[in-house]
Amino acid sequence: MLVLSRRADTSIIVGHDITVTVEYVAAEDVCLSVKGPEGLRVERLEEVELAQVLSKRGRTWDPSTMHVLSKRSRPALLLDGEILVAVQSVSSDSVRIGIEAPPHVLIYREEVYRQMQEANRGALSEPDEDLGGLVALRRVSAPE
Hey, what's the torsion of the CAs at 17, 8, 86, 40, to 10 degrees? Predict the structure, then answer.
């Protein structure tokens, strides 16, 4: 399980199309919002359901280390039946969010994801000056 610390108004990108945002953190309460593609299933899990999901993955529900989203809400979210999002702990201004997802689902802090996108855009917009040198090398090394 990947655990990330987040403050209010920060997000986590799950895959490339799901955004989990910490709307606010106050005392023991946390409000998370989930935005994703149309048809994204978001299920709120009770402790019993969470224990069943974790059991299928060879894990066990441990109430001493796995904390609820709020005293008044349920302990975890299940996204599209395969991505588990659970609050691990809450401090006065931040929350530790645990995310368990299949290996093919990438998880990023939003600010890191945005930096990667900018770097990729920059790499695509730079001129391909070095490609001419590669073509010349290929001609020299090609057998006659």
Answer: -30
3-state secondary structure of 124: helix
Domain, as residue range, for 9:
2-141
Mean pLDDT of residues grouped by 10 in the chain (144 residues)? 90 93 80 88 75 73 50 70 88 88 94 91 69 60 54
- Specify the number of domains making up the chain: 1
Tokens 């106050």 label which residue?
Answer: 26
Q: 3-class DSSP state for residue 135? A: helix
Give yes or no for a contact between 54 and 61, defined as CB atoms under 8 angstroms apart. Answer: yes
Q: Is the dihedral of CA 108, 48, 34, 66 positive or negative?
A: negative
Model pTM score: 0.71
